[in-house]
Amino acid sequence: MRLNSGHLQKLEALVATGMPGAYKVLIFFLIQYIYDLGTLGTIASWQSIAQIVGFFTAIGWSSLVLVRVAKAETKKDRVEVFNSLSIMGFSTLLVCASGILIIGVLLNMIEEGIQIIYWATAWTFYQIPRHYLIALRVYRKAIAMDVAVIGLSICTILMVSAEAASVWLAFSMMAAGLTAFILIQRGSNADRPNLGYEFKGLEFGLANFLSGGVSLSLIPLAAIFESEAFVGIFSLFISTMGIALLIPRAISLNQLPKLAKIVDLPETLTTHIALMRRQISLSNILTSTVCLAIGTIIILRLPETLSFTSVSLTFLLIILQNTLSTQGLIDANILTCREKSRHLLKINIVTSTFFFIITMILIWKPINHAFTYICLTTTILSIYRLNKTRHYANSINDSHAAL
């Protein structure tokens, strides 16, 4: 059976969505195989902290790139929007890098701070141009960019020592992103961007940080409460599980540019959302089942030094948390397309504050199975976030339909 253009684009969207996850799985397995679990745990921790910083330097601005580039009519307009938002992202990166360096000096952790800056810079240069390509649905170019990152990273692992691996892996990602940025400018005749600054990008970044940052903080927190072996196994599970989440994320990613264009057409939007909810729900059931299978396979091959019960319960809670988060993708996308960053911010301030309080209590006064309780907290907060996001999205849609 031949694929038509619609099916081919959906397949390309699936691959494009999965490439960052595939990068992590492949690179993490190679680091473990070529080096050791300790090196994997260290690099995974630096990368996770850098990705948390990246919510401010990359993800918030990328959200605006997705919405505004999709709405722009000409290439010139699209590139001008992209350049303007990119400058804002890079300006934020400079501020964050300075802050990280100062903290590193104060805590006598300069080397760790520098490594985090490398990864934060790489992540910013990688994500912003990638989201430009996704906004235009030119998934093949996004995939080509990811293939370049993976290829350079594999060469790095095969050629450099464990001590130099982190730096060169970050440079590999940065080089691919910078090349994509330069290629985007070709033939655009874009005017020089205005040097303004929109705090809406920071609001989206903070909202994403407060939600996704909670999940990304789990690996560094595991490093505090658990052994290096546990951190390595947990990192592998998180990265491998990402493969199973490709289908719902691909549906969400593929539909976001269209959603941005029809968000002010109530009848069309209602029909489109109903279809998306069915697709997300069915794919969520499938992916949750696959995640359970992945977790089972990893658990059956656990080292004897790790607790079967503790690892199993942790994996189960993480799967449930991801199931709930996936179910809220559509409502979050609606708020993003309407650029309602404040609503997302309110929800995530509540959840993150509660998570921070619980985490600080457990760090201050550790108890048995503390990390398991942290995972339980994230699951409960995911239920709250799902309900509140849906409430805000429905309220805004109803108010627009009434106009």
Tell me about this structure.
The protein has helices at residues 5-34, 37-71, 75-106, 110-135, 139-159, 162-185, 199-216, 218-225, 228-244, 246-262, 266-300, 308-327, 329-337, 341-364, 370-402. The N and C termini lie far apart (46 Å). The radius of gyration is 21 Å and the shape is globular. Helix 1 packs parallel to helix 5, helix 4 (110-135) packs antiparallel against helix 5 and helix 7 packs parallel to helix 14 (341-364). The protein has 403 residues and is mainly alpha-helical.
List its salient traits.
single chain, mainly alpha
Short recap of the structure:
This protein is 87% helix and 0% strand. By secondary structure, the chain is mainly alpha-helical.
Distance between the termini: 46 Å
* Strand and helix order: HHHHHHHHHHHHHHH
Number of E-state strands: 0
Classification by helices and strands: mainly alpha
The helical percent reads over 70%
